[in-house]
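Let us practice reading a record.
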Amino acid sequence: MVAPGTAPRPIVETRLTPDPVSEPGTRRKQGGEPHVYVPGRLDPEPGLRRALAALPLRRAIFTNGSRGHAERVLSCLGLADLFEAIFDIRVAAYQPKPFPAPYHEVCAALKIPAARCLMVEDTPANLRTAKEMGMGTILVGDAASDPFVDACVERAEQVPSAAARWLAAAPSRSPSGASPCC
């Protein structure tokens, strides 16, 4: 997954020659590979950068996409240095969100119990599993009245204020321990 609420709906194109930034082992199609073109479609997001940098929490990407795609998106948005780790579709042997296995693997890799994690996501179904594991949940996008959504914000820049409310709600969630997974 990419930075909260910034998952673009990119154009997928099939390249006929291998892409030098592609990942080893990706499926090839007619001598080329499916590739999502990111540069030129996304621009740096200074407001989002300020909002993410203001979060007094560790930050990690948790995506059903590939690490390479997440890196390209973060690079275009000027956010790559704000995340300590990227967990992609391979984190749990290609089991995607909302299956529980990748959530458990991410928490284990970060050495953070789920109850001290805050999941920021733009897909409500992916927040259900997070909530069932005890994570805090913030939905970016359309408002949801689902009981597994703790807070809903229209734009990713609003995540810090929602995260601050989540942190204040339980003293055991300290800035040094909580880790949002995006």
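A brief commentary: The chain is about 30% helix and 15% strand.
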